[in-house]
Design a protein that fits this description.
Shape: globular
Structural class: alpha/beta
Helix content: 40-55%
Number of strands: 11
Oligomer: single chain
Bound molecules: 6-O-phosphono-beta-D-fructofuranose
Order of helices and strands: HHEHEHEHEHHEEHHEEEEHEH
Strand order of the largest sheet: 1-11-10-5-2-3-4
Largest sheet: 7 strands, parallel
Length: about 250
């Protein structure tokens, strides 16, 4: 804490809370676009925040991405986590295996000494496949667990970066550019006013299900994500935002 004061991070946190309307902002030093170790710092800060909130029977829904993978790696085992269940928040969104929500959720559980459940849903679901999959009893069972989550942890990405990384045909990069998409989270693309302009079809939590009962922890750093973070919190203000100095300073310059 004293270190934070010295580095001026505490005042950055206060300014961002006001500017973004997010009750709690945590800023770690550095810029994850420039140095890889900053993601570990984001991971550590988020893992501490999560661990301090976890209650014995919580269900925690997690998203994918490299930042969330870093958070999972920093979790530590605790006896009170034995009945906590980690689940992926949504089905496949076109990520590599190590960055998929399923993989990350299992990693969270094994590090934290908790349980996990998988959700097997392919990427790029057709309308027909979607309609029949959600009728499967095994899918319905896990969906019920996912929807009961009391804590949700997710990353935020730059819209163009995410569409390119997913090699996305639908929506096409051109469509996203035409609609001024700046950010992405949960498979939803947002414009700078926080309006959702496209949603990837997959099973799991939908954005409008992130009601006030769910404690939402957003984790995203790097100056290149400033616009994306600002857009996302206009749609559904996070309960906690964990970010880095690079993103924080760029956010205040927007
Ligand atoms: O694809 C899953 C996801 O959580 C996206 O919703 C988000 O934009 C992205 O990963 C963040 O990835 P990273 O942490 O690697 O920047």
């Amino acid at each position: 804490e004293m270190m934070k004061e010295l580095l001026g991070l505490s005042s950055l946190e206060k300014e961002l809370e006001q500017r973004l309307g997010v009750p709690k902002v945590i800023v770690v030093s550095g810029d994850s676009d420039e140095n890889d170790w900053v993601k570990h710092e984001l991971g550590q800060a988020t893992s501490l925040e999560l661990s301090s909130r976890l209650k014995p029977k919580d269900v925690v829904a997690v998203m994918g991405g490299t930042t969330l993978a870093a958070v999972a790696r920093m979790m530590t085992a605790d006896a009170k986590n034995r009945e906590v269940v980690f689940v992926p928040a949504r089905g496949g969104l076109g990520e590599k295996v190590e960055n998929q929500a399923n993989t990350i959720s299992a990693e969270f559980a094994s590090r934290a000494g908790a349980q996990y459940r998988l959700l097997h849903v392919p990427d790029q679901l057709s309308e027909e496949a979607y309609s029949s999959l959600i009728l499967e009893p095994s899918v319905q069972e896990i969906l019920t667990i996912i929807k009961s989550a009391s804590v949700v942890i997710h990353g935020i990405g730059d819209a163009e970066t995410m569409a390119t990384r997913r090699n996305s045909k639908v929506p096409s990069l051109q469509k996203l550019i035409d609609n001024h998409a700046v950010g992405e989270a949960f498979g939803y693309y947002f414009d700078e006013n926080g309006k959702s302009i496209y949603k990837q079809r997959t099973i799991g939590l939908q954005l409008d299900e992130l009601d006030q009962d769910k404690y939402v922890i957003s984790v995203a750093g790097g100056h290149s994500k400033a616009k994306a973070i600002a857009a996302y919190v206009k749609n559904r203000p996070s309960d906690v935002l964990v970010t880095d100095e690079g993103a924080a300073r760029s956010l205040l310059d927007l």
